[in-house]
Write a structure and sequence with these properties.
Residues 170-237 form the TGS domain. By secondary structure, this protein is an alpha/beta fold. It has five domains: 5-161, Rossmann fold (3-Layer(aba) Sandwich), CATH 3.40.50.1010; 171-252, Roll (Ubiquitin-like (UB roll)); 260-330, no CATH class; 356-404, no CATH class; 411-463. It contains 15 helices and 17 strands. It has helices at residues 10-17, 25-35, 45-58, 62-75, 86-95, 105-117, 128-137, 155-161, 196-203, 205-209, 254-280, 289-297, 303-311, 317-330, 425-437; strands at residues 5-8, 40-43, 76-78, 121-124, 147-150, 171-175, 181-185, 211-216, 219-221, 233-237, 356-358, 371-374, 383-387, 401-404, 410-419, 441-447, 454-463. Helix 5 packs across helix 6 (105-117). The chain is elongated. The model is unreliable at 332-347 (pLDDT under 50).
């Protein structure tokens, strides 16, 4: 018979809950077993209510009442998962009257409750001898033959002589220097025990991120040390986050694994974004169609997974660049000189950092051939680029005009549309954009809140034949 449950009556429950002034070996041994999950302490609702009332009467401090009540509820499991009808237990206990003078109705309720749990249970009572005699007098021996009736003095020896669990323990309990208990799962696949890193993440994610060392029972240990039950662990925190990918090779708890992977995933994505911007600047929206299509063609779920692999060095920027070129060619664009795009024209004699604006009056495009750049006398304002046949150039002095050339055969044009906000207007605009440009546009921003005019910002990839 394997015993999984200890049902305790009122008096032993208080002995377990309230720390004695002097160490009591039998209580300490049971507490160690309970902390390790061997066995479960279970009580009937009538017992838990009696214990809470006792705490409220004996401890006037509200803080002390709250602390002891929380500890009590942490220690025990109230009948909630055995499918037992508690009213039936009360009726059966009432039918067993009369009781010996030293036994109360509550004691008999716990006796019946322990029997009903089944699967082998232990009933911990301060009146074990009287309870056993009561069962014999009532001729209940066969019905209660699988139930062990013990007191606190006989329990430790019984624990030594009986296999309490039919399954191995799957967690350990370790403590902080302040005495707080942390429950950590053992890896079910490798059977490796948790490490100080698992302990740090068990306390708080930020402590795990900054974990750079640990002391176990006052002795400094490596971070991959396997912890044992009831050890005291102190984490040495760094000022900055100091995660190491090698931690994934020895951590055992789900939380530690997930938080470490999540942190490195975000770092890889940040690095991937940086690499893309170095190559393409702000040519394409990170949430746009170009990167998404390239990601899918390269067998990634979305742009973020592509960025993660790029940042982690699992795919090269050259491979992504080639895929984008294939996507653009498939859409009918021609790539000049292997440059995917330069949205600005090459200007001789002008500072390369000079800000450039495409004039809205004529909106020059790559197929327009020569274009004219208008500069101010001190060259402080943005260079405004017009088509060569723009009528507004007649009002510009010739010395303020420069003949320029596009250095590519396509460019990205950003367009903002402001419209009266009405039901369905944004969808109508989106459908029109799809009709005009197919998939060669990215929606950058939509603002249709309240009664204000709705605003839609998008960019369009334009090449020869593109008519705006």
């Amino acid at each position: 018979m394997h015993y999984h449950h200890i049902v305790t009556s009122f008096s032993p429950l208080l002995d377990l809950l309230l720390e004695p002034e002097q160490s009591d070996e039998r209580i300490d041994r049971l507490k160690q077993a309970v902390r390790a999950g061997e066995p479960y302490i279970e009580v009937s609702p009538i017992t838990i209510n009696s214990a809470i009332r006792y705490i409220e009467l004996e401890y006037p401090s509200l803080n002390e009442q709250k602390r002891l009540t929380c500890e009590l509820l942490d220690w025990v499991r109230v009948n909630s998962e055995h499918g037992i009808e508690y009213q039936n237990i009360l009726e059966e206990a009432n039918n067993l009257r009369p009781y010996p003078d030293s036994l109360a109705f509550e004691d008999i309720v716990n006796l019946v409750f322990a029997k009903e749990i089944g699967g082998g249970s232990v009933y911990l009572t301060g009146e074990s001898v009287v309870m056993q005699q009561f069962i014999a007098d009532k001729n209940l021996g066969l019905e209660y033959q699988d139930l062990q009736i013990l007191d606190l003095e006989s329990l430790p020896e019984w624990l030594d002589n009986n296999s309490l669990f039919s399954h191995p323990r799957d967690f350990i309990i370790v403590r902080t220097p302040a005495g707080d208990e942390i429950k950590l799962r053992i890896d079910p696949h490798t059977e490796r025990y948790p490490t100080p890193v698992d302990f740090a993440y068990g306390i708080h994610t930020n402590i795990g991120h900054r974990c750079q060392g640990a002391f176990v029972n006052g002795k400094e240990v490596p971070l991959n040390t396997q912890l044992q039950n009831n050890q005291v662990v102190q984490i040495i925190e760094g000022f900055n986050k100091c995660l190491d990918r090698a931690w994934l090779e020895f951590v055992t708890t789900k939380k530690a694994k997930e938080e470490i992977r999540k942190w490195f995933k975000e770092k890889d994505i940040e690095k991937g974004i940086k690499i893309l911007k170095q190559e393409f600047a702000d040519l394409y929206s990170l949430n746009g169609e170009i990167y998404l299509e390239a990601a899918r063609q390269l067998h990634y779920k979305n742009t973020r997974t592509l960025l993660k692999s790029l940042g982690a060095g699992q795919i090269s920027i050259d491979k992504i660049k080639r895929q984008i070129e294939l996507e653009l060619k498939r859409k009918g664009f021609t790539i000049a000189n292997n440059n995917v795009l330069d949205t600005l024209p090459a200007i001789s004699g002008i500072d390369p950092n000079q800000e450039i604006i495409l004039a809205s009056c004529c909106l020059p495009l790559p197929q327009d051939g020569e274009i004219i750049g208008v500069v101010s006398e001190r060259n402080l304002k943005p260079l405004r680029v017009h088509r060569q046949d723009c009528l507004n150039l007649k009002n510009i002095k010739p010395e303020h005009q420069k003949i320029l050339q596009w250095n590519c055969q396509f460019c990205t044009i950003k367009i903002q549309v402001t419209m009266k906000n009405r039901s369905g207007i944004l969808m109508s605009i989106y459908d029109k954009l799809t009709e005009l440009f197919g998939r060669n546009f990215n929606v950058l921003k939509v603002d249709a809140a309240g009664r204000n005019p709705a605003t839609l910002e998008f960019d369009v990839l334009c090449s020869e034949g593109c008519d705006l």
